[in-house]
Design goal:
The structure is a homodimer of 132-residue chains.
Chain A (H helix, E strand, L loop, with lengths): L7 H12 L6 H7 L8 H14 L2 E4 L4 E4 L14 E5 L5 E4 L2 H13 L3 E12 L6
Parallel strand pairs in A: 3-5
Antiparallel strand pairs in A: 1-2, 3-4
Helix pairs in contact in A: 1-3, 2-3
The structure holds a DNA duplex (30 and 30 nucleotides).
DNA sequence: TCAATTGCGTTATGCTATAACGTGTGCGAT
DNA sequence: ATCGCACACGTTATAGCATAACGCAATTGA
């Protein structure tokens, strides 16, 4: 799946996420885009839905926020599972992939005949800089 | 950590979760307990906070819901990471543990000097019964 | 040209979670 | 015994996250 040309709203939302140092909530994105004509949450959520579908943005379920994918070039769907380490001090997020973890989880799913569609792996804690 | 005697509200919430076939949202729990005098969300959230702290209930971040721990006897903190397979058809949740997954994630965290505090592993899809 | 699709804007609403206040109860230390 | 503290509880209000439902405009392809 290649990413289509983004619409105006999608580009605006994507740019905001790309420039952000940390994940942003939909409402934070909305506030940052009021100067560009955004007035309602749905404008943000609709853009986010598409960006998530294209795989260029990830949703962090545990903090109700969104981040740009750390791999601008490759297609994120090809990495297998994606995991996130989220620092609760500085807010920074490290996106990573571990094939062994993927493999073990896939093995469990297969052996239980569970058809996976979406997965969430999020670790919250403190990054190297923030840990005392 | 051993689980203290539960208060009345905590017991009521725990019982509702234990009897449920699927995870419940806080507001669903509230509705089920109106006959027992519950009137406000905080009554549920406060009980849930304690039950989570005691490790007898888990929160499913990806669906904003709560389930009773599948291991009534043991202390859930001793399992290492907990993972959940959530069926989007029937709502059923399977709680499982995989030491190899734990080990790999811990290894990544250690090598990146990331101090983990809470982790979320949730797979959404369709269980064996529901998959066509 | 017509119909279907897609994006967009707006209003309203629903769901999830917490802040802030005050009350009552049990219990240990003085 | 009573004072002070910790904790659970109840209530009202509010904050934060997400979607339903409507209609309009632009695009595309039969």
């Amino acid at each position: 799946m290649t990413t289509p040309i983004l619409t105006k709203n999608q580009s605006l939302v994507f740019d905001v996420l790309t420039k952000a140092e940390a994940p942003l909530s939909a409402y934070t994105i909305l506030d940052k885009l009021r100067d560009h004509g955004f007035r309602a949450p749905l404008q943000v959520y609709r853009a986010l839905d598409k960006l998530l579908e294209y795989g260029v943005v990830h949703r962090l379920e545990s903090i109700n926020s969104f981040v740009a994918c750390a791999h601008p070039d490759e297609n994120c769907h090809s990495h297998g599972l994606v995991a996130f380490a989220i620092c609760e001090s500085c807010g920074q997020v490290i996106e990573f992939h571990d094939h062994e973890v993927d493999h073990r989880l896939m093995h469990w799913l297969k052996s239980h005949k569970f058809k996976a569609e979406k997965s969430t792996i999020e670790i919250r804690g403190h990054c190297a800089s923030c840990a005392a």
